[in-house]
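pinning this so it doesn't scroll away 📌
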Amino acid sequence: MNKTRFRLLVFFMSLSLIGIILVQLYWVNSSLKNNDEQFKFHVQQILGKVAGKLQEFEEYNLSKLFTKFQDSTGRPPSREEMLPFYYNSKPGKRESVIYSDNINQKDYSLFFEKDRNSAKKINDSLKRNYSIIEDGKSNPASDENSDIDTWQRYQFALYLKDYRENNPLEVRISEQWVEKLLQNELKQNGVNTPFEFGIYNDGLATKIRSDNFKWDPDATYQHSIYEDNEGYSKYRLLVSFPQKKVYLFNSLLGITLLSIVFTLIIIIAYLSAINQLIKQKQISEIKTDFINNMTHEFKTPIATINLALDAIKNPKIFEHPDKVQRYLQMIRDENKRMHSQVENVLQISKLDKKELDITKDQADIHDVIEDAIEHVHLIIEARNGTLTRHFEAQRTTALLNDVHFTNVLVNILDNAIKYSPEEPVIDIYTENVKDFILIKIEDKGLGMSKNTQKRIFEKFYREHTGDIHNVKGHGLGLAYVKRIIDDHNCHIYVESEKGKGSTFIIKMPLIN
């Protein structure tokens, strides 16, 4: 996969993911708005019911006063005669009272002279239609209400007007009763969220309000109460829901959580896919590097072998047996070199499949290190390098596979030589730390970047240092080292600084 296709794929996958998230957010936002509208409509209906019950309760209280007077006098009272029964009115000198509706006592009494049974009809109808029980519920209205004439309703409205004008709001109702009435209605309609309330008179707060009531344009609803016959009212009932947003969100919590879970699954799948694509891209690049390096590694020995064979075919060469032996040795060495490379590939493959059988025996670490040094000392001498031993460990017996552990040390030493542009300078240290032995192999070579140190033990990974082939290798040596070290229950670390060399540290348990 080339870089352009890879970037396009990542772009479209990212665009799709962002689109899904935006759709989910839009859906949640739309659902919240719809729930808000439904909540508003629902609350307005509830407030309408509460307003109706407040009206019924007031009419019922007036009917009790009306009945009380009629029971004591045997006749319906006039508006003036009802005044002493009101809170703000005091009995005084009887005189003709002119009301705001321009109907005086005499005129008013004439209405009831027409039909003595009218007052009784009003009282009986009120008792039937406006009986209020303590929890705020009212009995349904009876069809018998239709027998009250329009003029009788109008006269009762005048009584009600006097009752309201002569009784302050806090006398007619109580804060506790309004709260209970609201609480019952909200509960019956499934609105289970805290609320605050208040009654306002011409825009001014009255004493009928809860302690924590505050006006909030987004969470406060209102409805007129105590309307007159023309539908006008100076009183408004306001109800606020401080936790409205939480309540609305909770109503969507189940489906929202599912949406979030599925969105997270999509995000995780997306990140996993991107990660796999990046890994595949890296593996593709590493494999390409591996093929290039292996081709380069085999090309030189094959060419050398071909040249040696051509030289041996020359009849004149038979006159010089030493040259024949030299060419034969070259062929053997190059063949051994290719065999070693193939063997490394096979061994790392077997390690990955856990097919490589590694038996371990007791061995002296210093002896194993000396054996590894023997494999590379000619190369160091050929490059005029030096290798210094600093063996300070007193306890050196460990359980290991002699062949594979020697290969581990040879690989590290070989890297120290290859990545030293000048004469290789190598120091090998050993020391005891509790029940472990530390083996440190230090060089003064090119060193490594922080990123390379993190990936140095990955299969096929090689740090590019300009020309991909300027340092021989195929990226399997240290991967093989890491797997053998892990199989021996050891740990390997690398400390390095660019341009100042590297130090490989092996921590290995000792046999007690």
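📌 and the second one:
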Amino acid sequence: MRVVTLASEDDFEGWRDAARGLAQAGVPASEILWQVGETPTDLFAGQAAMPPAASRALKVPRAFVDLARSAILHRDCERFALLYALLADDPRRIADPADPRFRRIEAMAREVRRDIHKMRAFVRFREVRDALPFPGTGAPDARYVAWFEPSHHIVRANARFFVERFANMRWSILTPALSLHWDGETLCEGPGATRADAPGEDPVEDSWKTYYAAIFNPARLKTGAMLREMPRKYWKNMPETALVRELVATARQRETAMVATAHARSGGNAGAAWQALRDEAAHCTRCDLHRHATRTVFGEGPADARMMLVGEQPGDREDLAGRPFVGPAGEMLDRAMAAAGIDRDTVYLTNAVKHFKFERRGKRRIHARPDAGEIQACRWWYEQERSLVKPEMTVALGATAARQLLGRVLTIAATRGRVLELPEGGLGWVTIHPSYLLRLPDRAKAEDEFAAFVEDLAGAARAMA
């Protein structure tokens, strides 16, 4: 039996060096005992010499190395042996999803990545005002201290994030296994700590609690989703979570009061709210499209319109004018709405994406389809528009608009021309974008498609009625 002793629970480099030599020498996994520190985990295991020089080549996919780097941080005591067993087996099965060992390792890596994210999200620093010496300096100075209880061995792996994020702040992160200390120049480690070693509340937290209570929206409360993203084990470390129990308990009462207030004021502030939203959108930088477009092209129309039409994105003419549907596609849409008996002045017109995305060819700017990230970045504006206008019917013009409407990728053919009940309320309807009609070279086909488009718009109006 060969015993491999690693320096720490997160000693990936040590495991990798040992595993490489053992695998190249053809040592089976059953003959290796992995342990951390100097105390043997198996008192009956004898220390054996490491294998001789490599007897076979070892090629390992980069993806497996990255996966192992994360999985090593898991708390499962079998992780070292499991990774080596997969490494020492047939190299072609290293990343085989059908292999139960690979699936288990992949699950470990996911849990570790999630724990890393939780630490970054839920660490809360508190100022220490008692002028204690900062570890490693011997000099008294103000510093910030946080307490965190990770589920896995992620503290060292996360250190670089906090150094870069809080480079100008002197801080300590205390955990049960070890502590990190940053003095503005050097990062050092210390022994583990207890919750009692961390400071209590500081004066800033009262302001933060007031802000958190003010922005808490009881109408959007989803307790199950909140607990999945922010488990109760982290609550005691964050000032805002001291308010969560009361806010959750009174959510229904507060939501009822909000609805009653909104009903009492309905009609009086929708226009002002829309104007404020439009002004805010004018400075939107949620994605990189704002860097090249002329301006944000926000929606327009009555703030109490019964029907909302959502296109893909502004075109060249819309980008220059700052208004939706004023170019060739807009003229086609006007013709179709008139034929369907819909007055444009009664409809709210907007786009799924508010900035013009294009490719420059000489002096021309050619339309380019928005990607998933750009659509998602603009979803907030779309949701705010719908929440203000509250249309009875929302018509998606084209696949991009349909994706914004329903929150998923779909084909026009699968949903065109039928009523959809939207989860946030109201009805939905999917049809083509009028620019499609402009691209049809065959005149007869173009006329047929135009007639079908008119019927789609008329059908949406009838369904709304």
